[in-house]
Amino acid sequence: MPKPLKLHLGCQEKYLEGYVNIDLPPSEHTAQIVRADEYADVRDLSYDPETVDEVRSHHMLEHFSRQEALVLLARWHRWLKMGGIIHVETPDFEESAKKFVTSGLDDQFALARHIFGSHEASWAYHKDFWSESKFAYVLHELGYGDFRFEKFSNNLEQKIPALKGSFIAKQEKLLGKLGKMGFNNLSNIACYAKKVVRDVDYGAAIKRILGKSLVGREKKILDVWMEDISGKV
Ligand SMILES: C[S@@+](CC[C@H](N)C(=O)[O-])C[C@H]1O[C@@H](n2cnc3c(N)ncnc32)[C@H](O)[C@@H]1O
Hints:
Elements: E1 6-9, E2 20-23, E3 38-39, E4 52-58, H1 66-79, E5 80-91, H2 93-101, H3 105-116, H4 132-141, E6 144-152, H5 156-159, H6 167-175, E7 188-195, H7 202-211, H8 219-229
Parallel strand pairs: 1-2, 1-4, 2-3, 4-5
Antiparallel strand pairs: 5-7, 6-7
């Protein structure tokens, strides 16, 4: 039995055994110590169609423009074997936005960092939103299915399940975050899906998805976006 090919993209400090861990080189990091098997820009990676068993990525997809992210999701779909898995985690924009409008200024600074990125390196900016409904729509268009979502934060209940529903956990929720202890109430979403359709017209699917971001009479902008992705999927 050949060893499964599992990619962990944007791994940074989280080295996963059994995966090919890939990230930008140490020279691109200012505050973290990156440990990878390969140092590369994930936009430059290339694998043969239907050779990859899993593509996994935590808190990286939001760092790409809407065109780039769609190109990556389409390429990952092409590389995956039928039934192959995509496991992508990002900040949950929808839940974060809900928290933002009901929070005081102190918590809004932390929430805005979660929404817009940490800004300590040229890659550390978030360029688009991801949420359960967006993942489901975009990934369906690109030939993925069999979705499962997990929504979570690093609050006490998540880190110590035994405290679920307890008085202490409720206090922590009220307080919002216990930042110095590594706890926070910032919302994340993990999306698990499989490649369920083989022949997808990626260009047409991406055009439909990008068209949703047009406001008013902006056909020329769609042309520019499509020019950006031309030859990349
Ligand atoms: C917010 S960190 C997340 C790190 C880790 N996955 C985690 O969840 O803790 C984003 C990572 O994506 C990587 N990244 C961003 N753009 C990239 C690119 N174009 N190619 C490769 N890695 C990239 C960064 O170098 C960084 O390590």
